[in-house]
Specification:
Layout lengths: L2 H21 L9 H24 L11 H11 L11 H4 L1 H12 L11 E5 L11 E5 H13 L4 H17 L1
Helix pairs in contact: 1-2, 2-7, 3-6
Length: 173
C-alpha cells in the first residue's frame, strides 16, 4: 500500500495523533507495532524525497542542514579514510564502530534537529534504496555520509542518471 494511501486512511484526527506520537521520546513506548510501522513510513518517505532530490538537483549544490559545513568538517576529521562510495555495514553497526560514532553523533545534539532519529541510508551510492542496499542509521550519520557524498562527487552518478531519464522522456513525448 502506498504511504500516501495509509496516511489518507488515517483521516485528520488519526494523522494528527500519529504526528504527535512520533514526536514523543522513545521511552514513552514499548514495542508498539503500529508505531514501528509509522516510523518505517516516515523513514521511507524521507529516503524517497532525498533520492528524488539528488536525482533532480546537482548534489554539490545541495544544502541539507544549516550545519552542513560543521558536519562535513567533523565527519572527515573523525573518519578521514571511511569509504563512502560503498559503505560496509560493520563500519557503522559493529560494537567498535558504535563506540567511535557515538561521540561524533552526540556533538550534534541541539545543533541538528532529530540528530538521533532513525533514517535509511544507502550502502552503495550509485544504487537506489532497496532492501539489499539500505541500512538503518541515525539521522546525523545519514547527513554526514550524504553531505560527504554530495561534496565529493559520489552522488553525481544518481543525478546524471536522473537527468538522462528526464531527457529521454522529453524526446519520447
Amino acid at each position: 500500500m502506498d504511504t500516501g494511501d495509509v496516511l489518507a486512511s488515517l483521516g485528520v484526527e488519526g494523522a494528527t495523533a500519529a504526528a504527535h506520537a512520533l514526536s514523543l521520546p522513545a521511552e514513552a513506548y514499548g514495542n508498539d507495532a503500529q508505531l514501528e510501522v509509522l516510523w518505517a513510513m516516515k523513514a521511507y518517505n524521507h529516503a524517497e524525497v532525498y533520492y528524488n532530490l539528488i536525482s533532480s538537483v546537482e548534489p554539490k549544490l545541495l544544502k541539507l542542514t544549516k550545519s552542513d559545513e560543521k558536519i562535513y568538517t567533523k565527519f572527515r576529521e573523525e573518519f578521514p579514510d571511511l569509504c563512502i562510495a560503498v559503505l560496509e555495514p560493520e563500519l557503522l553497526k559493529s560494537v567498535e564502530a558504535k563506540e567511535k560514532w557515538r561521540p561524533f553523533c552526540n556533538q550534534f545534539e541541539g545543533v541538528v534537529e532529530d540528530f538521533n532519529y532513525g533514517t535509511l541510508l544507502r550502502l552503495d551510492c550509485q544504487k537506489d534504496y532497496t532492501e539489499e542496499n539500505t541500512i538503518f542509521a541515525t539521522r546525523i550519520q545519514f547527513y554526514a555520509v550524504e553531505i560527504a557524498r554530495n561534496r565529493e562527487g559520489y552522488n553525481d552518478f544518481v543525478h546524471k542518471a536522473g537527468s538522462k531519464t528526464k531527457q529521454q522522456k522529453k524526446v519520447e513525448s
